[in-house]
Amino acid sequence: RFFRTTKFPVPLPNGAYGVGAYISDITEEHKWQQSREQHLKHQKLLLEMLSRSFESKQEQLDYALHELLKITDSQYGYIYFYNEDKKEFILNSWTKGVMEECTVPGQPKVYSLGNTGIWGEVVRQRKPIIVNGFQLPNLLKKGYPAGHVELKKFMSFPVIIDDRIVAVVGFANKQTDYDETDVDEMTMLMAGVWNAVQRRESAETLVYERNRYYQTLLSIGDGVMVIDNQENIEVLNAVASRLTGWSQEEAAGMNYKQVFHLSHEQEGFTIDNPIEKVFATGQPQELGNHAILTSRDGTKYHLEDSAAPVLDDRGQIAGVVLVFRDVTEKREQRKKIEYMSFHDSLTGLYNRRFLEEELHRLDTERNLPISIIMGDVNSLKLTNDIFGHAFGDMLLERVAEVMRHVCRADDIIARWGGDEFLLLLPKTSLAEAENIANRIKKETYEQQIRAIKCSISTGCDTKRTMEEDIIQTLNRAEAKMYAAKTLGRDDLQSRELSFITNFLYQENQSEERHARRVSKLCGKMGLALELPGADILLLREAGRLHDIGKIVFSPDLLNKGSQFDLMAHKKTEQHPIIGSRILSYFDETHQLAEAVLNHHENWDGSGYPKGLKGEEIHLFARIISVVDAYDHLLHPHCKASTMGKDEALQEIGRRAGTLFDPHIAKIFISLLQHAEGDVFPQNNQSD
């Protein structure tokens, strides 16, 4: 207990003075004073925690721990964070003296709840614990390792936020016993400290989030404009600046209508202003599909955008944020997609899908009579096989151009399939349709793709009454077209083959003379080999057409003779393949295709294109190989290497068994040696 004494002099009877005293019990007053001082310390600590600037959360908690250590008059203290989900303690702070006195090696920073002793009871029991006789036996203690600081008195309590333990605080070795007052005071103070820490974290998070969102607005790929409640611009990001033509510095403080000029893409129509609608309704708004933004320099952009209100802490509209993007390219792409969905990508004509819809749309009485022309382009496969698909595409484009030129504005032209076209002609009689078809055939025939003369087979039919089925009209037109194609096939093929050979010979007349000589001499070889008459005719024709594949060569390459570079040589090796494709296409020559394909194969397998050898090579090809070589020796493109008959036959003999079939070479040499004079005089350039 505490007492206060007041001394005073007391006169004694003998005239001397004694000492008197008033003694009063001030224990309660002392307790009140200590409580007041403690309260002031508490308030000072909380004020420091709230007002003092700390570099980090760690520094803030370290400071709080050491101040609480002073208030409790303890020797040691700690703060551990606690993870309820993982049931783990994570060391945050020890008071300074602990680490100096503790000599336990490898002191861990993380503890599992299951491995803790008495100090873990604060979590297990979810309440404070006080052990003033720490050195006495206790069932909850698990002991501590050698080198650990010596504990005499111990107090620990949980920090509970929103019914979850977030941390555990402990103090040790107070001079006097810990009591409930210590627990209450420390729990209250630590709750205040924790709130201060959380407030700091919240403020830092708020600053971070605000800066992050602001930077996001500035760097986002869409245009962003923030408008205050006075309809003035606060923020204009880089994309918005580019689209409007105004910089952030110029636009800040201006009324948004001076910067953001909206209009409808179609003149005479109006567009809803999404910003005005947000201010009026307080609800987010989206812009329609037809909005145009006119930039400061007059550039127009198609926009997609959305506007949303910015609310203050009372839920009142403090402004509007508008997010918009330029969809001009997207709209153009969409138009292209829409165009491609109804048009053929190669010719630009309508496609089958569109025409099928139009067929039913136009099938009305006011459009009668409705005529249909079906056309099938001839020689497309031949063109592709000889010159490649690029030239085949060119052929289709030429036919499409002819149809555009011939047809009228209201006629609908479509590419129906690979090489098929369909024309839908409203208010057109059969006679008129046939006239249009004839003009298309005539103008198509005037077109030419390299060695291919363009042509088209057509069929027409007409729907005259509503009782007739338009699909049946189409089917009849298609049937007529196929009938025309079938009936004209032989004549067409004959004309096509003649045109190809004539085109080749016009490019190089020496090729024509060479072909005639080879054909004639092949006929003589057929007789010498005692082949059947029909085979001799085929052999002569194979000899005439053996180099038809050279149709793909340019005139320069045709006239080079043997003076080839490596690339040109590779091209020439393709001509047997091309020739075989051409001859396979025609009914009257398909039997010759293999012979032409093989005529550059060698007896020893060193030839091309397949590397065949011996009797794997077609008989006609072995004959043509010898005759072709002989004629080139006598009539080369390069005059300097001209040989006479005897010298040429000697060369054939030397190559027998390597390049040439030895049996055929022997018969050929014998045939020429017994012939009267040269079969083809050396200087005679005709047959």
Explain what you see.
- It is a single chain.
- The protein is of the alpha+beta class and 687 residues long.
- The protein has five domains: 1-49, no CATH class; 52-203, Beta-Lactamase; 223-332, 2-Layer Sandwich (Beta-Lactamase); 343-487, 2-Layer Sandwich (Alpha-Beta Plaits), CATH 3.30.70.270; 494-674, Orthogonal Bundle (Hypothetical protein af1432).
- The protein is built from 25 helices and 22 strands.
- Strands 9, 10, 11, 12, 13, 14 and 15 form a seven-stranded antiparallel β-sheet that branches. A six-stranded antiparallel β-sheet has the order 5-4-3-8-7-6. A five-stranded mixed β-sheet has the order 16-18-19-17-22, with helices on both faces.
- Helix 1 packs parallel to helix 5 (180-219).
- Residues 562-566 and 681-687 have low confidence and may be disordered.
Give a brief description.
This protein is α+β, with helices and mostly antiparallel strands and about 675 residues long. It has 25 helices and 22 strands. The chain has 5 domains: about 1-50, no CATH class; about 50-205, Beta-Lactamase (2-Layer Sandwich); about 225-330, Beta-Lactamase (2-Layer Sandwich); about 345-485, Reverse transcriptase/Diguanylate cyclase domain (Alpha-Beta Plaits), CATH 3.30.70; about 495-675, Orthogonal Bundle (Hypothetical protein af1432).
What is this structure's SSE topology?
Layout: E1 3-11, E2 17-25, H1 27-51, H2 57-72, E3 76-83, E4 88-94, H3 96-101, E5 110-112, H4 121-124, E6 129-131, E7 154-161, E8 164-172, H5 180-219, E9 223-228, E10 233-236, H6 238-244, H7 248-251, H8 256-259, E11 261-264, H9 274-281, E12 285-286, E13 291-294, E14 300-311, E15 317-326, H10 328-342, E16 350-351, H11 352-361, E17 370-377, H12 380-387, H13 389-406, E18 412-415, E19 420-425, H14 430-445, E20 448-449, E21 452-453, E22 456-463, H15 470-487, H16 489-507, H17 509-528, H18 533-545, H19 555-558, H20 566-572, H21 575-585, H22 593-598, H23 619-634, H24 645-655, H25 662-674
Parallel strand pairs: 16-18
Antiparallel strand pairs: 1-2, 3-4, 3-8, 4-5, 6-7, 7-8, 9-10, 9-15, 11-13, 12-14, 13-14, 14-15, 17-19, 17-22, 18-19, 20-21
